Automatic annotation (TrEMBL):
Binding site for heme: 437
Protein name: Cytochrome P450
Keyword Metal-binding among UniProt keywords: yes
GO MF term set: heme binding; iron ion binding; monooxygenase activity; oxidoreductase activity, acting on paired donors, with incorporation or reduction of molecular oxygen
Matches recorded under CDD domains: CYP64-like
Source organism of this protein record: Amanita thiersii Skay4041
Cofactor: heme
Length: 508
């Protein structure tokens, strides 16, 4: 049934008045923030791109936590790592997700780990993740597979160095698809990689705060689609098909391989060994856990790896120092492995600095308060959205001096185990509370191996066109997952010796 616009306005006005009363209620004051206007609140104040920059500006003005209201919906914006740590300690209250009409309900991501409400199914998904990649020991079992995939990536770069970003997508997609479904991806435009990348791009667009008015007025879904402004429904249907394909097609492939008796071990094939004993709900949870692994890990890892190459183009002295460390520790008779990690502190520091310098999820995905609470001395009403500005925390000059410079030395531990940086960037960039990234050990291992192997084999420098060097700029795209904007670079073998080493490995 269609809803009267007047009814919507009245409900918005009433909700706004309730929100304003929270400012002086007995539970305490809401965090400060920009002053809104009746009914719509701060809708006009919300940024349309690179929201982390606006939030950081508000943080400088209002403090570590501030608040706005969007058509009556309270939203808390956290700019302080100390406030995030308090939220982390109270994770059972602040680990829910808001209902997102576009990205969650209409596009279908409400069933995946990233948006599923906090509860029994969420815990089931996390248990599946924990058994597969939930700790260092689990990931150690995957070292051989990771090293093989990175060697393939190096050969792809050697053959077509101008296709850096597609090769990184194939690398990360190949790791996750093999681990999850036992799928060996094709070298160029693999259909499974393209399938899931399309769905991830949709998620990125559908979950931008304020991008779709239906997120604020869910009843718009019931209006006739011929009305102005209802084009989001056609978009949602197209994106929902991509989501369903992402869930069902790789799963069906694994089932076919199992029926033929030639399915390699994978997350899905292992859990389906006793399929007869599984309920329809069990099967559903396996499907969505599997799709969540790719959806949550692929884009973020590729963004970090792409940022590494940009950092090396812009910082040749750092690249040279890292290569000197690799040559001194490993030599040039083999390529790095994950077992070398503890002996390569400078290379490991580059990995940490990549995670800090290039925030792959600048504001993460919003959390939702399950009940009334107090954070930083301010009242947080039940149902509040909580957006954490991870970018601001990773660029805090009091914690990371010269935050826009790429400085790995800030992460190198001294004899007593401390580092010049006052905070490990991993404690920020992988999220907080019960929603902390369950694939962080796999992501970090993959990133380290890609960084170390690329440094051992290649020289990464500025591209030259018409005799002129092209100096790229570190600028990020908007969206839930953020990438460095496309840049050009030159990737060449360091020597014929390392080149022949890679060729020898390919024959084994």
């Amino acid at each position: 049934m269609a809803v009267s616009p007047l009814y919507v306005i009245c409900i918005g006005a009433a909700t706004y008045l309730v929100y304003r009363r929270f400012k002086q209620n007995k539970n305490g004051l809401l965090p400060p923030g920009p002053k809104g206007i009746p009914i719509v609140g701060n809708v006009a104040d919300m940024p349309t791109e690179k929201d982390w920059l606006t939030y950081a500006e508000w943080g400088r003005k209002y403090g570590g936590i501030c608040s706005v209201t969007l058509l009556g919906q309270p939203m808390m914006i956290v700019n302080s790592a100390e406030i995030m740590e308090e939220l982390d300690r109270k994770g059972s209250i602040y680990s829910d997700r808001p209902r997102l009409e576009m990205g969650g309900e209409l596009v279908g991501y409400s069933e995946t780990l990233v948006l599923i409400p906090y509860g029994a199914r969420f815990r089931t998904y996390r248990k599946h993740f924990a058994r597969m990649i939930g700790g260092i020991s689990n990931v150690e079992k995957l070292h051989g597979m990771l090293e093989g995939k990175v060697r393939q990536f190096l050969r792809h770069i050697l053959a077509t160095p101008d296709n850096l970003l597609p090769h990184l997508r194939t690398l990360t997609g190949g790791i996750i698809l093999q681990l999850t479904y036992g799928i060996e991806v094709q070298e160029n435009k693999d259909p499974f990689v393209e399938l899931i990348e399309n769905a991830n791009a949709n998620f990125n667009a559908a979950t931008i705060p304020g991008a779709f008015v239906v997120d604020f007025f869910p009843s718009l879904r019931d209006l006739p689609e011929w009305l102005p402004g209802m084009g989001f429904m056609e978009t949602a249907r197209k994106w929902l098909k991509d989501t369903v394909d992402m869930v069902e097609i790789p799963y069906a492939y694994t089932k076919q391989q199992m029926a033929a008796g030639n399915a390699p071990p994978s997350f899905v094939s292992t859990l389906l060994e006793h399929e007869d004993s599984l309920s329809p709900e069990d099967i559903r949870d396996i499907k969505y856990t599997a799709s969540s692994l790719y959806g949550g890990g692929a884009d973020t890892t590729v963004s970090a790896e792409y940022a590494f190459f940009l950092a090396m183009v812009l910082n040749p002295d750092i690249q040279k120092k890292a290569q000197e460390e690799i040559d001194a520790v490993i030599g040039r008779n083999r390529l790095p492995t994950l077992a070398d990690r503890s002996q390569l502190p400078y290379v490991n520091a580059i990995v940490m600095e990549v995670l800090r310098w290039n925030s792959v999820a600048p504001t993460g995905v919003p959390h939702r308060a399950i009940q009334d609470g107090v954070v930083g001395g301010f009242f947080i009403p039940k149902g509040s959205l909580i957006v954490v500005n991870l970018w601001n925390m990773l660029h805090d000059p009091t914690i990371y001096p010269e935050p826009f410079s790429f400085r790995p030395e800030r992460h190198i531990p001294s004899a007593d185990g401390t580092t010049p940086a006052q905070r490990d960037p991993r404690t920020i960039c992988f999220g907080f509370g019960r929603r902390v990234c369950p694939g962080m050990f796999l992501a970090e291992a993959s990133l380290f191996l890609t960084v170390a192997s690329s440094l051992a084999l290649f020289s990464i420098s500025k591209a030259v066109e018409n005799g002129v060097e092209i100096t790229p700029v570190h600028e990020n795209t908007s969206g839930t997952i953020s990438y460095p904007k496309p840049f050009k670079c030159a990737i060449k073998p360091r020597s014929s010796q390392t080149l022949s080493l890679l060729a020898e490995e390919a024959t084994h």
